[in-house]
Amino acid sequence: MRLERSSILVTMLWLAARPAAAQEASPSPSFVRVDFGIRGTVYGDNADRARYQRYRDLRNGPFADALRAGSTNEHWSFDVRADRVGYRDQRYTAAYNDFGKLKASFEWNQIPLFFSQDTATLYSSPSPGLFLLPDPLQAGLQNKTATLASAAGQASVFDLRLKRAVADARLTYSATPHLDFNVSFRNTQKKGAQPWAGTFGFSDAVELAAPVDTRTTDVGAAAEWTNDRGEVRVGYDSSFFRNDVTTLVWDNPLRITDSPTAGPVQGRMAIWPNSDLNSGSVSGLVKLPASSQATAYVSLGNWSQNDPLIPFTINTALPAIALDRPTTDAKARVTSTAFTFNTRAIDRVWINARFRSYDFDNRTPVFHIANTVSYDTSAVAFAEGGTSPYSFTHKTFDLDVSWTPIAHGAFRAGYTREVVDQTFRSVDTTTENTLRLSADATGVGWATVRAVYEHAKRVGSGLDEQTLDDIGEQVSLRQFDISDRTSNRFSGLVILTPLSSLSLNATAFVGREDRPGAVFGLRSNDNTGASVGFDLVPGSRVSAGASYEYEKYSALQASRQANPGAQFDDPTRDWTTDSADHAHTFTASADLLKLWPKTDVRFAYDMSRAESVYIYGLVPNTTLPAVSQLPPVRNTRNRLSADARYSLTRRVGAGLTYWYEKYSVQDYAFNPSTLDSIAQPSFLMLGYLYRPYTANTFWGRLTLNW
Question: CA–CA separation, 68 vs 90, rounded Å?
């Protein structure tokens, strides 16, 4: 039934895309291609089928894939396509081009996200966003006559999935040879559920399958005028986000009655609010004398969001705190500009200058707050007295100069100055200056060489440590995106072609980053990597290639384990995290085309192996207990694919495809051996874990062409 409905859809798309006057036009090259067959997957014991199918649908059964139909002549062309018909990852496209007059296209694409096939929960959900536990269970847990561990066996097992469906339509109408009108429409809908967390404190947290039912609609319209000297574009763009579930309410596993100290019977939180964006833009390009041209772009937009606000607490045992206003009334003005100028007025010299700015002017009124609620257990004074409408301005200037003294060599120097002004941050302004130097030698005999060096230094001004103290942070903390930073990076590329059929390549990079003013937070961040590979094409029927890459990323972070009071300023409670991530990647492929009569064979293999190590350190005079180091986090993925196609006739082909994939993972935080039940001492989880899998997928297919 799925294939029958899909065939009707493809036929309708084909007929809709075909021009009414097609039969009157001169004979045109047309084609139809259909690929169909049967597919099956065999899994190893206890395999994580959801992870293997994470963004695809590989269920067993018949399939119709790569359906293609189209036609073209000197006046028009059209093309319709359908992939993975009837499955969760299906895709349909249609395109029509009346040359020089009208271009239209449409795409409908589904992208699944399969989290887990064995998640489980004790919650029921009578309506979207509401999660309830059986009253007897809550009463037993509150009165300590029952335990979560004893109730875990009653949990319902379910598939945790999410699916995104994208409809994209575009139209270009050429009113004259110099004037085009463009219209675009894109609608992205997400439905399903995803893991979510709710908490009543560190000793009482839950995981929820939060419902996702959102829609983002993007609409654009523009007029473009061009001639030999330049072009002008005037456009309008908008984006509207709608969420049908904006509030989550869930039962507290440990309470059946509200308490002013022990907590509420339910928790509540707001999630993704509805929002709107409207913007207009003007851009232009002008060609100037001396091989020069300039471009300009200016955009003005408004962001707004005005959803109803939820109360400070759902706990009826606490006093109600009046809201300053009933809705968000959030709004911002966004102004963007971009200007470029490039020229080759001087022989062998190319100059490019670019300036960009982005101004986010937050016009949301201050929401005055005298008191707030902490963990739904107590009403406390709010020291700041209200919200802070964060705003920022981002300005970037780039200048690049390239000199080509010889036909196959070039030297380039570049400079970037980036200035960010912001409000309600510990640093008012950050300024980063970057210098780039590179040298290229291309087409010199059988070698291509490139080397790039980059030095950058970011400095902040207007430091106000009081803003950190106001939010309960250490005043020596330097936040990642605004802390002073000095970085150096070098990368190189070499390509050798000793034979016309053989190419060898190698790359390497080294990066070092230091943050001198950071006592707490990220102090350093370094990276190193290298790769080697080759491509071999001894003839038109055979090609092969392989590559290996190694990457290492390391960082040092510092913190202090301290509660408010005397501990807060005690340096003997300082500790560090020294992290190192290593990754190895190997890929290889070979194509054997018509090496045997009427037969094409392709092979591909890739392997990736990664390891993350976290080493915790203490100061020499520490008053903290000794550290128990965590084991490394490791994961390895091997994938082999083989595809063979045989031409039975000029129009009919048969094929076999095989995929082998094996994934192994060792993660102390999400291993089934660590989290062996949905009921843990301090939280109730869904059972979404990191598990290995081994999978073998087979396709048998027929391809028809006419």
Answer: 14
Torsions phi, psi of 671, nearest 5? -70, 145
> DSSP H helical segments within 413-479, as ranges?
466-470
* Residue 503 and residue 520 in contact, taking contact as beta carbons nearer than 8 Å: no
Angstrom distances, CA of residue 427 to CA of 261, 359, 396, 461, 602? 38, 17, 18, 6, 56
Cross-strand bridge partners of residue 250:
131, 267
Taking 3-state DSSP, the helix, strand and coil percentages for the chain, each rounded to the nearest 5, stand at 5, 65, 30
Query: How many helices (H) and strands (E) in the chain?
Result: 5, 33
Contacts of 507 (CB under 8 A, 6+ apart): 491, 492, 493, 494, 529, 530, 531
* Own/partner long-range contacts of 493-499 (Cβ < 8 Å, ≥24 apart): 493/448, 493/449, 493/450, 493/451, 494/447, 494/448, 494/449, 495/447, 495/448, 495/449, 496/446, 496/447, 497/446, 497/447, 498/446
Strands 124-127 and 179-199: unpaired
What 3-state DSSP class applies to 448?
A: strand
Yes or no: say if 96 and 80 are a contact pair by the CB < 8 Å rule.
no
Q: Please give the Cα distance from 123 to 92 (Å, whole number).
A: 38
Averages of pLDDT over each 10 residues, the chain, 706 residues: 37 37 46 92 95 96 92 94 95 96 98 96 96 94 90 93 98 97 98 94 90 98 96 98 97 94 94 97 97 97 97 94 96 98 94 98 96 90 90 98 90 98 94 97 85 97 86 87 95 94 97 94 96 96 97 97 91 96 98 94 98 96 94 97 96 96 94 89 91 97 92
Sequence-ordered strand ranges (E) for 122-204: 124-127, 130-132, 156-176, 179-199
**What φ, ψ does residue 260 adopt, rounded to 5°?**
-75, -10
Q: How far apart (Å, rounded) are the C-alpha atoms in residues 221 and 97?
A: 19
The per-residue pLDDT for range 407-462, each reduced to its tens digit, is: 888 999 999 999 999 999 999 999 999 999 999 998 777 899 999 999 999 999 99
Can you tell me the distance from the alpha carbon of 4 to that of 8, in angstroms, rounded to the nearest whole number? 6
Q: What are phi and psi of 391, to 5 degrees?
A: -135, 160
